Amino acid sequence: MKNLYPLSLLALALAANGTTARAQDLAFVACPIVQDTPSVPCWLTEYEGELYYMGVQSDVSAPFNPPWLGHMALVEGTPSATGERICGGLVLDPVRVAVMPEMSPECDERLVAEPGYVLPFEPRRPPGPSSGRLAFSPPQPPPPPEPPFEPRTFPVYFPFEGAVNFQTPGALGEILDYARAVGAERIEVTGYRAAVLLTDGTVLEERSGLAELRAGQVARMFEGLVDSVEEIDVVFDEAAEPGDWQDRRVDVRVIP
Amino acid sequence: MTVKPRLSHLLLGVAVTSFGWQAVTAQSTDEAAAAIAADAGDLPNGGTAWWEPGEGRPIPEAIEYDNDHGRLRLYNVDGEVVTEGHPFFEPLGPNGRACVSCHQPADGMSLSLRSIRERWEETGGSDPIFAPIDGANCPNLPQGEEASHTLLLERGLFRIGLPWPPRDPWGEGTIEPEFTLEVVRDPGGCNTDPEYGLDSANPTVSVYRRPRMVANLPYVVHRNFGIGPFVGKTGEPALRDPENGEPVNMNLMADARVPTLGTQASDAAANHLQLLRGLSRAERAQITDMQGQLFAAQVYDNVAGDLLAGPGGNAFGPENLAHGDIGFLGNNTTRWVFPVADEWAEPQPGLTEEQNERRASIWRGQQIFHFRTFWISDSMHLNTVGLGNPVKRTCATCHGMHMTGLDTANGWMDIGTTNLPWAREVPLNPWTDEEELMPLFRVTCRDDVPPHPFLGRVIYTQDPGRALISGRCNDVGTIVMQQFRAFAARAPYFSNGSAANIREVIDFYDRRYNIQYSEQEKTDLENFLATL
Question: What's the rounded Cα separation, in Å, for the pair A229 and B26?
Fold first, then answer.
């Protein structure tokens, strides 16, 4: 594999992240960079002089959804311990990327295809039409629940600053199945918002009111979908403690 | 009521899955092939004839109409349609219009600008299509004067008056929009009119839109791939069919404001026909029954000749549409968006060199549509659904539905046809005295909602599209695409008629996404689109 960028500043980047909980994790806000290839483009970003690889373009089913030029991205990821590079960027894996809502016109870097560069793997989805299936199959649905039916809580996660979006319906499927199977009488929706401690020590907080918005939007999605439900309660907690992606969520409690 | 694929389609669907799509060619043995094989010369040709409301002649099972690029065929799966007494064809309301007034057989069941102009000339502006309610820039303008009908006469646009703020589709009352709406320019005068405008007793926004095809509708209202209780692109709850509570796919009209063909028909009767009593249940059913079995597509190209000649032209003609798989996402193995086999493009014996060359060009155009990548950027509800901005993809990415190029899922998107800076606007300069026809609105998003991701908090638009229904900032200028059929019969294109011909559509995309098509690529793509 051919590197597009020298490895030079890796040491520096690793030294800088001593401030996060886990020594090797990074959390930063930076412009995304799109790097073309003869196949699908790579998505990169630069932090403290190092170029990082986040993923490639694929389709809606992919766990990695590329960010947007014109916006900064919040990147939370673990740099490859083996120094693996794709498209010249040090691989972040796992990685979570969220698009920052405000516009950042300065994020407009498009790198043309490096002649001769070939992705080290076959992309799951070519840039043209698909071969008839999604790039990533959804997880197998769990077996139908059996009595006695217990109240169960399901988390629904959101990207930083995000509310209900194209991914939410997928996350609700399992909850709806459970609620229908157990003939749920009540659904309790609790919204949260969170903050994130960046590698440079800054705390970035989601906007206030987001916990309420998330809970309200999710509750509305259940309306009229489960015949047995008599009540949908909506609560929210606007405290925004620094934490990780699992704190940006709504809990849906299904009560038989 | 909703349209379900008929039994014959379902049976054919089985055949298609077991033999692959190559099975359904002009040479295969089933009923589709029998109909296709009918020599074009045997079918009645309606020329470019205008249908008067209430004229009562039946529409045969199959009939063809001439247009600039070739010939369109309408195909009624259930056989001849008796139009006498039929609510789609009779002038039910006081203004003399029928549905057929604006959905003309020769124009692919839409209405071309050419037909509109011809009607103006032939009737001195008295044809019911020019009725003041929506056939004029504003109802209170002096009738019979061209100046009162410029949007219809120059761009083929009818006025659509929508309540502002939007009605709550889930309950009583209105919803609180995420933005304020101001009128910046109003050449038609209706948005600022004290009786009809935004500040009137019934605050109304007037936007101006093209009619849409009333054929191949089972594809438009399918409930197959991607359709569920939520809108796939945003997660919001999908509209429901009032008859049975089932979620619908929300691909009707430029803004998906009506859930079903039945509610659409009632809406059209009240607004276009000014039918105060409303449609009866039986009338509605008669209309939707007809809509469920009527298919339309080109069958003949002026240069290439019979599009159904030779093997593998499965994309062409209404019979292939009638018997196609409805509501499937196209792909590159089993169901192309527009299946045209390689063999179709090989020189066919019995055709002239010119005909064979044009077939090769049409095939290349089909390949460009499917495979020629470019950077799709800043397009709301496409770049925002997990693909990234920009995404390197093709025309088929957005126009993905097998046989129609519709969006398979609930589909409104902003490609810049109505939002500035991409919308067509008359340039302000001393060398032109052309005046802009379209209204211009300023949308200002509230501070407590996130800005529009690509246009910010202040957006200028000729038609806020879906946002006039949803009240959402992110929906400003999003438009539900139309099916890729009968293009040759129904120019101009886009919901605001801003592309006068197919080449202007291609040029719009070339500019919008910096595609850098070669001249040859543009020609091939144009030749291909003209055959659908």
Answer: 53
Per the CB < 8 Å rule, is A161 touching B230? no
Q: Say which amino acid occupies B461.
A: T
Q: pLDDT confidence of A224, banded at 50, 70, 90?
A: confident
Q: What are phi and psi of B475, to 5 degrees?
A: -90, 0
Taking a C-beta distance cutoff of 8 angstroms, is the pair B267, B287 a contact? Answer: no
Decide the pairing of beta strands B294-301 and B305-306.
antiparallel
| Domains of chain A, each with CATH number or no CATH | 2-22+149-255 (3.30.1330.60), 31-111 (no CATH)
| Inter-chain CB proximity A70 and B245 less than 8 Å | no
Interface ipTM: 0.89
Place of tokens 């934490």: A243
Distance CA B66, CA B73 (A): 9
Provide the pLDDT for residue A16.
37
- CA-CA-CA-CA dihedral for B221, B226, B230, B231, to nearest 10: -70
CA pair distance B191, B177, nearest whole angstrom: 18
Which residues face A99 on adjacent strands?
A: A73
Number of C-beta neighbours around residue B183 at 10 A:
17
- What pLDDT, in 10s, does the model give residues B215-234? 999 999 999 888 889 999 99
Residue A142: what pLDDT? 83
3-state secondary structure B212-264: CCCCCHHHHCCCCCCCCCECCCCCCECCECCCCCCECCCCCCCCCCCCCHHHH
Distance CA B277, CA B274 (A): 9
User: Shortest Cα distance from B203 to chain A (angstroms)?
Assistant: 28
The pTM score is: 0.92
Q: What is the pLDDT of residue B41?
A: 58
A75 burial (CB, 10 Å; 0-12 / 13-18 / 19+) is buried
Structure tokens given for B367: 């390949």
What is the number of residues in chain B? 532
Per-residue b/e over A97-116, b at no fewer than 16 CB within 10 Å? bbbbeebbeebeeebeebee
Q: Which tokens belong to B257?
A: 């404001």
Min Cα distance B381 → chain A (Å) is 9
- The confidence score (pLDDT) of residue A107 equals 98
Q: Best of A87, A103, A124, A166 to disrupt the B interface by mutation (most B CBs within 10 Å)?
A: A166
Q: What pLDDT score does B150 carry? A: 97
- Chain A residues whose CB is inside 8 A of the B233 CB are 166
B514, B520 contact by CB (below 8 A): no
Q: Which of B234, B387, B531 is nearest to A59 (CA)?
A: B387
| Spatial separation of the C-alpha atoms in residues B220 and B225, rounded to whole Å | 12
What is the token pair recorded at B419? 């939002």
pLDDT the model gives residue B451: 95
Cα(B307)–Cα(B69) distance, integer angstroms? 12
| Cβ within 8 Å of residue B270, ≥6 positions away | B276, B278
Tokens coding B318: 């209404």
Residue A14, Cβ neighbours under 10 Å: how many?
16
* Residue B39, phi-psi category: left (phi > 0), alpha (psi -120 to 50), beta (remainder): beta
Mean pLDDT in runs of 10 for chain B (532 residues)?
A: 31 27 32 43 83 95 97 98 97 97 98 98 97 97 95 98 95 95 97 97 98 98 90 92 94 97 96 95 97 98 97 97 94 91 95 97 98 97 96 96 93 96 91 91 96 97 98 98 98 98 98 98 98 98
At residue B42, the pLDDT reads 78
Q: Name which of B240, B373, B454 is nearest A70 (Cβ-Cβ).
A: B454
Hey, are the CB atoms on B332 and A68 less than 8 Å from each other? no
The three state secondary structure string of B126-182 is CCHHHCHHHHCCCCCCCCCCHHHHHHHHHHCCEEEEEECCCECCCCCCECCCCEEEE
